[in-house]
């Protein structure tokens, strides 16, 4: 077994080694091999392409140089010796090979009286919220491994989710969802949502999405408190819901095997796709937003390409919880068994990467990857666990996006900046690249004289062939019927005649507004 972690060697590198590393990184940023320009006969074109190739080379060298300072860490991964399978490697073997700081991230918290637990991490991976079904809620600082706040709400808690930062979180309790601050103080009780089964937060739009036990989907703006949308899915009770991080569309899995995708400005689903013959048990989106994994009761896990709505791969196995890591690893859980699949070849073909079995009898409720760390959090019936999954997290963080070491001042500035950049609900759509593009105005082609005459003749024929009801007391006389048909023909002709008369220029006899009559008089006097 070989566990490759971040390389931080202190041996001074020679110039040759540095130049080789730079060449390797430069190749990564070049757009393939350069074109063969010697065979070109057009000298002018050849000169232009030579300049272009030089610019490509300079930009690739600049990107490679910046990578050395901006992305100092390399992603670790698990590699087997010879024919050794990576999924046979146990957590004890990994813990003995990694450094002390990484081994501290592997632990088990046993709380048998309040489970099963559901977990949620902040986007930076610094804080974690754990909620037990029997009312226990805890906020944990994962860097210091210390509990910030623990509270007992004394009723059922079905789900928990952080809002825009770690200072506020929402909990789906027995009757209504509640919003608390980090000190455990109750701030809001959102009675309009009802008995919520699942919560999701749209960070770019500051919308709290929930689905209740009646299948109603609610969107509430947490900045103004306004209820943006209340949609009836009409597909029954479900607790399978996930937000696509790419476009903000909410996907809901139903008991009929369908997955519907919603946005707050539409009463009908954007997409309704049949994914499984039985109920959908779990749902997850890849960070790039183009892949979706679904699990059904028929013991199948399907990976979908959302650009074409096609199945890329079908994996066998039952699953109660799914989650994608930042690097694209897929974690699945059923019973007390957790499996991690990896796209090791880069061809979107997932194979078994790692497996882990928690203590016998523990029933896993949720698996979620910790951002910017090679760690998988597991919430189960007896507490929660944390295991090491090499290669799952992004090794380099952008402090403008998610900073695990941010201070309170930086947090305040980020909150203000994100509020200024808040997107309206109308920007949620399947293809967000269309935002900002202008639809070209279609010029209406004017119908020709022959087309107008043909339309008028067709309307007259239709008016003549109208079936007249037979009436008593002399109202169905031939003369009366002929008169009615003549009226119908004149009525059919009227719109075409009005169009023709509207095109005529106004004459002197045409009645004009009083403000324009003086101009007509002057013209007449001048004549």
TrEMBL record:
- State the superkingdom: Eukaryota
Q: What is its main location?
A: nucleus
Write the record's keywords in alphabetical order, separated by commas.
Nucleus, Repeat, WD repeat
Residue ranges annotated as compositionally biased, kind Basic residues, are 466-483
Give residue ranges of the WD repeats. 273-314
What are the subcellular locations of this protein?
Answer: Nucleus, Nucleolus
GO terms under cellular component: nucleolus
Extract the InterPro entries matched here.
BING4_C_dom, WD40/YVTN_repeat-like_dom_sf, WD40_repeat_dom_sf, WD40_rpt, WDR46/Utp7
Q: Where is the BING4 C-terminal domain?
A: 352-432
PANTHER family tied to this protein: WD REPEAT-CONTAINING PROTEIN 46 (PTHR14085:SF3), WD-REPEAT PROTEIN BING4 (PTHR14085)
Q: What is this protein's name?
A: BING4 C-terminal domain-containing protein
What organism does the UniProt record list as the source? Solanum stoloniferum
């Amino acid at each position: 077994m070989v566990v490759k972690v971040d390389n931080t060697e202190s041996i001074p590198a020679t110039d040759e080694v540095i130049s080789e590393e730079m060449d390797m990184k430069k190749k990564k940023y070049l757009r393939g091999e350069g074109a063969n320009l010697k065979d070109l006969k057009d000298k002018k074109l050849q000169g232009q392409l030579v300049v272009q190739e030089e610019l490509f080379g300079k930009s690739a060298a600049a990107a490679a140089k910046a990578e050395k300072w901006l992305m100092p860490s390399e992603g670790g991964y698990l590699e087997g010796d010879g024919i050794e399978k990576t999924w046979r490697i146990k957590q004890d073997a990994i813990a003995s090979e990694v450094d002390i700081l990484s081994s501290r991230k592997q632990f088990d918290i046993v709380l048998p009286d309040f489970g099963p637990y559901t977990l949620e991490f902040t986007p930076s991976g610094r804080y974690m919220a754990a909620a037990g079904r029997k009312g226990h809620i805890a906020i944990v600082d994962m860097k210091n491994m210390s509990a910030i706040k623990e509270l007992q709400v004394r009723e059922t808690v079905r789900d928990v989710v952080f809002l825009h930062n770690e200072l506020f979180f929402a909990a789906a309790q027995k009757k209504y969802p509640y919003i608390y601050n980090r000190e455990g103080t109750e701030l809001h009780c959102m009675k309009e949502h009802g008995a919520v089964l699942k919560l999701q937060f749209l960070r770019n739009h500051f919308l709290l999405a929930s689905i209740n036990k009646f299948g109603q989907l609610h969107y509430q703006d947490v900045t103004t408190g306004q209820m943006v949308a209340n949609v009836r899915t009409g597909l029954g009770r479900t607790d399978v819901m996930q937000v696509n991080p790419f476009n903000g569309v909410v996907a809901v899995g139903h008991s009929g095997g369908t997955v519907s995708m919603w946005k707050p400005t539409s009463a009908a689903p954007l997409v309704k796709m049949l994914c499984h013959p039985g109920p959908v048990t779990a749902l997850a989106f890849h960070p790039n937003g183009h892949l979706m994994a679904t699990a059904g009761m028929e013991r199948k896990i399907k990976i979908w390409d959302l650009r074409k709505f096609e199945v890329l791969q079908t994996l066998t196995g039952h699953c109660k919880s799914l989650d994608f890591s930042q690097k694209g690893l897929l974690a699945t859980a059923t019973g007390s068994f957790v499996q991690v699949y990896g796209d090791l070849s880069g061809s979107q073909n997932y194979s078994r990467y790692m497996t882990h079995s928690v203590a016998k009898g523990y029933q896993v409720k949720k698996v979620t990857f910790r951002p910017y760390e090679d760690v998988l959090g597991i919430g189960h019936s007896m507490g929660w666990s944390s295991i090491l999954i090499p290669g799952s997290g992004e090794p380099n963080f952008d402090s403008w996006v998610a900073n695990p070491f941010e201070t309170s001042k930086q947090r305040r500035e980020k909150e203000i900046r994100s509020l200024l950049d808040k997107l309206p609900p109308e920007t949620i759509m399947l293809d967000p690249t269309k935002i900002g593009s202008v639809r070209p105005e279609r010029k209406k082609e004017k119908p020709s004289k022959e087309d107008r005459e043909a339309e008028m003749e067709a309307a007259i024929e239709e008016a003549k062939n109208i079936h007249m009801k037979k009436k008593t007391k002399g109202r169905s006389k031939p003369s009366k019927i002929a008169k009615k048909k003549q009226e119908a023909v004149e009525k059919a002709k009227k719109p075409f005649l009005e169009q023709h008369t509207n095109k005529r220029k106004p004459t002197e006899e045409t009645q004009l507004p009083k403000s324009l009559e003086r101009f007509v008089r002057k013209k007449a006097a001048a004549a």
